[in-house]
Design brief:
Helix content: 10-25%
Number of strands: 17
Structural class: alpha+beta
Shape: globular
Largest sheet: 8 strands, antiparallel
Strand order of the largest sheet: 12-7-8-9-14-5-2-16
Number of helices: 9
Mean pLDDT: 81
Distance between the termini: 48 Å
Radius of gyration: 19 Å
Strand content: 25-35%
Order of helices and strands: HHHHHEEEEHHEEEHHEEEEEEEEEE
Low-confidence stretches: 21-25
Number of domains: 2
Oligomer: single chain
């Protein structure tokens, strides 16, 4: 498949990166129905549809398949959810390192002050709204730390265990499918609390702190697959909303994937520090250090 010219890609990028146009194109549309349609269409395996879909996708993103396990795909969906070749993501093996579960851009990070996090400057949201009806989990993270990890359309879309851990519970929260790009985050208050998401409680082994991953879906992306559950969490899913689990993973093991790409917010309790190198806008790879735990805590 011949990639589009650099000139054409730059011309399209200049148009869609204008804030007003981008916001209108990706939000002021029938988000739910377009998302359901995109989920169906992306799985079409007819060769002509597949090639046109992949070519169109590459007009809007800088897709790099050099680290993919395979480079031939049955459908657009197959390419979006591609696996990595062995060794493509070295994992920080230090026992004090909690690693990034995914490739991403750091959207925000910091201390959870008074039960609040920031989605963008001047746009706070609360743990209580974000995590749903779980006051114990909210209290657990007061004064802790968080990192917002934004996956772009061209990135590797699978996510992995941040540490040796046991998944205790998954809570599915149905919701909307607003775009989660920086333009929307500056315009829609409490956006992460509005969108579909899954709250994944990860207990560090052998007896470490509770780390929570919250994959947040978005337009065209409202479907989350978890390897340890036999259900697909998506807009038509009707329950149960709280799913008890007892699945153990080693650091770097695959946990699941987005059907396309979106955001993962990682929560850590007090005593777990953000990695010193983190800053807003930084690109981070799965397996690189995200948090540091005291030697006595692992």
């Amino acid at each position: 498949m011949k990639p589009p010219s650099a000139h054409l890609k730059k011309s399209i990028a200049r148009i869609v990166q204008q804030e007003r146009i981008n916001f209108l194109l990706t939000n002021r549309i029938p988000r739910r129905w377009l998302t359901l349609f995109a989920g169906w269409f992306s799985k079409v395996e007819q060769p002509l549809v597949r090639e046109l879909s992949l070519r169109t996708w590459r007009l809007f993103s800088d897709v790099d398949l050099s680290d993919a396990k395979h480079t031939r795909f049955r459908s657009l969906h197959d390419c979006f959810t591609r696996e990595l070749r062995a060794g493509a993501r070295p994992v920080d093996t230090r026992p004090t390192a909690i690693v990034s579960p995914c490739d991403a851009i750091v959207g925000a990070s910091g201390t959870i002050m008074d039960g609040c996090l920031l989605q963008a400057k001047g746009f706070p949201y609360t743990l209580a709204d974000f995590l749903g009806a779980d006051p114990d989990l909210v209290d657990h993270y007061r004064g802790g730390s968080y990192v917002t990890l934004r996956l772009t359309a061209s990135m590797y879309h699978r996510f992995h265990a941040p540490y040796d851990c046991r998944i205790e519970r998954v809570t599915y929260i149905s919701g909307d499918t607003w775009n989660v790009n920086p333009i929307a985050l500056k315009r829609i208050e409490r956006l992460f609390c509005k969108n579909e998401r899954a709250v994944i409680r990860c207990r560090m082994l052998p007896a470490g702190p509770l780390i929570t991953l919250v994959p947040v879906a978005a337009i065209l992306v409202a479907s989350i697959r978890l390897r340890f559950l036999d259900v697909r969490l998506h807009l038509k899913y009707r329950g149960p909303n709280v799913i008890a689990c007892d699945a153990s993973f080693r650091k770097g093991d695959e946990l699941g994937w987005f059907e396309h790409g979106s955001t993962i917010i990682v929560l850590a309790p007090p005593g777990v520090a953000l990695a010193a190198h983190l800053h807003e806008g930084q690109r981070i790879k799965m397996g690189q250090a995200l948090f540091e735990v005291p030697p006595s805590a692992h």
